[in-house]
Specification:
By secondary structure, the chain is α+β, with helices and mostly antiparallel strands. The protein has 3 helices and 10 strands, in the order E-E-E-H-E-E-E-E-H-H-E-E-E. The chain has 3 domains: 1-44; 45-133, GMP Synthetase, Chain A, domain 3; 136-164, no CATH class. 23% of the residues lie in helices and 23% in strands. The strands form 4 sheets. It has a 3-stranded antiparallel β-sheet, with no helix packed on it. Strands 8-9-10 form a 3-stranded antiparallel β-sheet, with no helix packed on it.
Protein backbone atom coordinates (compact mmCIF):
# COMPACT_ATOMS: atom_id res chain seq x y z
CA UNK A 1 0.00 0.00 0.00
CA UNK A 2 1.39 3.40 -0.96
CA UNK A 3 1.49 6.21 1.55
CA UNK A 4 -0.30 9.30 0.31
CA UNK A 5 1.56 12.56 0.84
CA UNK A 6 -0.68 15.48 1.71
CA UNK A 7 0.95 18.86 1.13
CA UNK A 8 -0.51 22.29 1.78
CA UNK A 9 1.05 25.72 1.40
CA UNK A 10 -0.06 28.73 3.44
CA UNK A 11 0.72 32.29 2.37
CA UNK A 12 -0.01 35.21 4.64
CA UNK A 13 -2.65 37.61 3.30
CA UNK A 14 -3.34 39.77 6.35
CA UNK A 15 -2.51 40.14 10.03
CA UNK A 16 -3.73 36.58 10.78
CA UNK A 17 -5.23 35.67 7.41
CA UNK A 18 -3.78 33.01 5.12
CA UNK A 19 -4.37 31.61 1.66
CA UNK A 20 -4.25 27.81 1.89
CA UNK A 21 -3.28 26.05 -1.34
CA UNK A 22 -3.76 22.33 -1.78
CA UNK A 23 -0.56 21.43 -3.61
CA UNK A 24 -0.79 18.94 -6.45
CA UNK A 25 -4.54 19.47 -6.89
CA UNK A 26 -6.84 21.73 -8.88
CA UNK A 27 -8.78 22.69 -5.76
CA UNK A 28 -9.42 26.38 -5.20
CA UNK A 29 -7.46 27.97 -2.38
CA UNK A 30 -9.11 28.31 1.00
CA UNK A 31 -8.89 31.61 2.86
CA UNK A 32 -8.54 31.41 6.63
CA UNK A 33 -8.46 34.07 9.32
CA UNK A 34 -8.50 34.29 13.07
CA UNK A 35 -11.61 35.61 14.75
CA UNK A 36 -11.64 39.19 16.05
CA UNK A 37 -9.97 40.81 17.91
CA UNK A 38 -6.80 39.18 16.44
CA UNK A 39 -8.00 38.74 12.88
CA UNK A 40 -10.88 39.97 10.80
CA UNK A 41 -12.89 36.75 10.79
CA UNK A 42 -12.77 36.68 6.97
CA UNK A 43 -12.54 32.88 6.91
CA UNK A 44 -12.60 29.85 9.15
CA UNK A 45 -9.97 29.78 11.89
CA UNK A 46 -7.73 26.77 12.58
CA UNK A 47 -9.95 25.51 15.42
CA UNK A 48 -12.98 25.50 13.11
CA UNK A 49 -10.98 23.71 10.42
CA UNK A 50 -9.91 21.03 12.90
CA UNK A 51 -13.51 20.45 13.95
CA UNK A 52 -14.70 20.49 10.33
CA UNK A 53 -12.11 17.84 9.51
CA UNK A 54 -13.30 15.60 12.34
CA UNK A 55 -17.00 15.99 11.50
CA UNK A 56 -16.45 15.61 7.75
CA UNK A 57 -14.30 12.52 8.16
CA UNK A 58 -16.76 10.82 10.53
CA UNK A 59 -19.64 11.60 8.16
CA UNK A 60 -17.78 10.23 5.15
CA UNK A 61 -16.69 7.16 7.14
CA UNK A 62 -20.26 6.41 8.17
CA UNK A 63 -21.43 6.69 4.55
CA UNK A 64 -18.51 4.54 3.37
CA UNK A 65 -19.28 1.83 5.93
CA UNK A 66 -22.99 1.80 5.09
CA UNK A 67 -22.29 1.58 1.37
CA UNK A 68 -19.63 -1.10 1.93
CA UNK A 69 -22.43 -3.33 3.25
CA UNK A 70 -24.64 -2.28 0.30
CA UNK A 71 -26.99 -0.23 2.46
CA UNK A 72 -28.33 2.81 0.61
CA UNK A 73 -28.47 5.66 3.10
CA UNK A 74 -30.24 8.93 2.50
CA UNK A 75 -28.56 12.24 3.19
CA UNK A 76 -27.02 12.95 6.55
CA UNK A 77 -26.42 16.12 8.56
CA UNK A 78 -23.61 16.34 11.09
CA UNK A 79 -23.07 18.78 13.92
CA UNK A 80 -19.92 19.14 16.01
CA UNK A 81 -19.68 21.24 19.13
CA UNK A 82 -16.57 21.97 21.17
CA UNK A 83 -15.52 24.54 23.71
CA UNK A 84 -12.08 26.07 23.87
CA UNK A 85 -10.71 26.07 27.40
CA UNK A 86 -7.41 27.02 28.93
CA UNK A 87 -5.09 24.21 30.01
CA UNK A 88 -2.96 24.22 33.17
CA UNK A 89 -0.37 26.43 31.41
CA UNK A 90 -3.07 28.93 30.42
CA UNK A 91 -3.01 27.98 26.71
CA UNK A 92 -6.20 27.58 24.70
CA UNK A 93 -7.01 23.98 23.81
CA UNK A 94 -9.96 21.95 22.59
CA UNK A 95 -10.06 19.05 25.03
CA UNK A 96 -13.35 17.54 23.91
CA UNK A 97 -15.70 17.61 20.94
CA UNK A 98 -19.20 16.20 20.63
CA UNK A 99 -20.33 14.94 17.23
CA UNK A 100 -23.96 14.26 16.34
CA UNK A 101 -24.67 12.61 12.99
CA UNK A 102 -28.31 12.81 11.94
CA UNK A 103 -29.61 10.16 9.53
CA UNK A 104 -32.53 10.81 7.23
CA UNK A 105 -33.29 7.07 7.53
CA UNK A 106 -34.54 4.99 10.42
CA UNK A 107 -31.77 2.70 11.63
CA UNK A 108 -34.13 -0.28 11.17
CA UNK A 109 -34.32 0.55 7.45
CA UNK A 110 -30.56 0.00 7.11
CA UNK A 111 -30.05 -3.79 7.30
CA UNK A 112 -26.41 -3.65 8.39
CA UNK A 113 -26.64 -0.61 10.66
CA UNK A 114 -25.46 -2.36 13.84
CA UNK A 115 -22.37 -3.78 12.09
CA UNK A 116 -21.64 -0.36 10.61
CA UNK A 117 -22.07 1.30 14.00
CA UNK A 118 -19.49 -1.05 15.50
CA UNK A 119 -16.77 -0.16 12.98
CA UNK A 120 -17.31 3.05 11.01
CA UNK A 121 -15.16 5.23 13.30
CA UNK A 122 -12.14 3.06 12.50
CA UNK A 123 -12.34 4.26 8.87
CA UNK A 124 -12.01 7.93 9.92
CA UNK A 125 -8.39 8.95 9.39
CA UNK A 126 -8.80 12.35 11.04
CA UNK A 127 -10.64 11.33 14.19
CA UNK A 128 -8.40 8.35 14.83
CA UNK A 129 -5.27 10.44 14.19
CA UNK A 130 -6.44 13.13 16.61
CA UNK A 131 -7.36 10.54 19.22
CA UNK A 132 -3.95 8.88 18.97
CA UNK A 133 -2.09 12.16 18.83
CA UNK A 134 -0.12 13.44 15.87
CA UNK A 135 3.61 14.02 16.16
CA UNK A 136 4.44 17.40 14.63
CA UNK A 137 8.03 18.35 13.89
CA UNK A 138 8.58 22.10 13.38
CA UNK A 139 11.43 24.13 11.96
CA UNK A 140 11.69 27.77 10.89
CA UNK A 141 13.74 28.93 7.89
CA UNK A 142 14.82 32.59 7.98
CA UNK A 143 15.53 34.87 5.01
CA UNK A 144 19.18 33.71 4.96
CA UNK A 145 18.11 30.08 4.70
CA UNK A 146 19.16 29.31 8.27
CA UNK A 147 17.04 26.61 9.86
CA UNK A 148 15.84 27.17 13.42
CA UNK A 149 14.31 24.48 15.58
CA UNK A 150 12.03 25.68 18.39
CA UNK A 151 12.70 23.97 21.69
CA UNK A 152 10.53 23.90 24.76
CA UNK A 153 11.48 26.33 27.56
CA UNK A 154 12.81 23.38 29.58
CA UNK A 155 15.23 22.64 26.74
CA UNK A 156 16.68 26.14 26.88
CA UNK A 157 14.85 27.92 24.07
CA UNK A 158 15.30 27.88 20.29
CA UNK A 159 18.47 26.77 18.59
CA UNK A 160 19.91 26.93 15.12
CA UNK A 161 20.23 23.66 13.25
CA UNK A 162 23.80 23.80 12.03
CA UNK A 163 23.39 20.52 10.16
CA UNK A 164 21.06 22.21 7.63
Amino acid sequence: MNDEVIRLTLEQEGAYAFRVSFDGTTLAALHTDESPPLGGGAGPNPSALLLAGIANCLSASLLFALRKFHDVPGTIRTEIVARKTRNAAGRWRIPHAEVSIHLSDKAAALPHFERVLAQFEQFCIVTQSVREGIAVDVHIVDADGAIWIPLTPSEGGPSRDTAG
